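Please decode residue identities from the backbone states below.
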């Protein structure tokens, strides 16, 4: 766990260093309007994503290693043909990921946007609570309530999308694996040694099935986190377009003075 915590902070530190290198001296981004839109990337979102990604990857590789070793042991102890049905189940999981990846990415980015918006609102809390007048405080509270409500809805939508996709896909994969186990038992009814090996390893196979469900859940989570990481990476490249820069200048307000007047 110490290495994991160090990894989180190193990832965050690396992003901040790259952000500074990519965006220093872009004075147009210091404008209040742009600051309000983008400040949450480095004040909260970057650290949150660093934490999510390192934690998810750690659990993902840990679960994958556990599942892989256990499936190999089952195939070695019982019959190598069992591995084919587990492989078929993994193929179902893979195609599900391919089919629903865009949906997961979309809901993940939507959730990230509302989370960043909430962070942006919270950045204005201090002056509105302690310094601002009653009217400004009421406006801030209204904005806060709207932001946190939307963030809740987006989080629920994201988690629900993952859960539905994961549950349906894992059920299909389990049907494939259960079919393989059933066929194996039917074909080896006259072989007490193989039947005994199958019965003895059933508890282990139930643990494998649970681990497969957990792994696929983590895998879907990682696809969502990857989409959010891509959005974070864009902050190393963003800059205002010419049209946006011109919008800061109010042309009718510009006038020239000479010795005789305007």
């Amino acid at each position: 766990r110490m290495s994991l915590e160090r990894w989180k902070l190193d990832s965050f530190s690396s992003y901040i260093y790259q952000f500074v290198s990519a965006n220093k001296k872009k004075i147009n981004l210091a404008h209040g309007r742009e600051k309000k839109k983008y400040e949450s990337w480095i004040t909260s979102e970057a650290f949150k994503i660093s934490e999510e990604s390192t934690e998810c990857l750690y659990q993902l590789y840990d679960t994958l290693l556990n599942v892989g070793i256990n499936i190999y042991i089952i195939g070695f102890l019982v019959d190598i043909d069992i591995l084919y049905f587990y492989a078929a189940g993994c193929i179902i999981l893979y195609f599900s990921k391919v089919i629903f990846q865009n949906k997961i990415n979309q809901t993940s980015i939507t959730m990230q946007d509302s989370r960043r918006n909430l962070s942006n609102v919270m950045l204005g809390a201090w002056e509105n609570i302690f310094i601002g007048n009653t009217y400004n405080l009421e406006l801030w509270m209204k904005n806060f309530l709207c932001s946190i409500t939307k963030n809740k809805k987006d989080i629920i939508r994201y988690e629900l999308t993952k859960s539905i996709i994961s549950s349906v896909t894992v059920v299909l994969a389990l049907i494939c694996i259960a079919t393989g186990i059933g066929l194996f038992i039917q074909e080896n009814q006259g072989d007490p040694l193989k039947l005994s090996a199958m019965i003895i390893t059933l508890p282990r196979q139930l643990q494998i099935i649970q681990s497969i469900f957990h792994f696929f859940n983590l895998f879907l989570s990682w696809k969502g986190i990857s989409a959010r990481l891509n959005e974070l990476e864009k902050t190393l490249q963003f800059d205002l377009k010419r049209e946006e820069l011109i919008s800061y200048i109010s042309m009718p307000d510009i006038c020239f003075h000479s010795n005789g007047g305007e």
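Observation: The radius of gyration is 27 Å.
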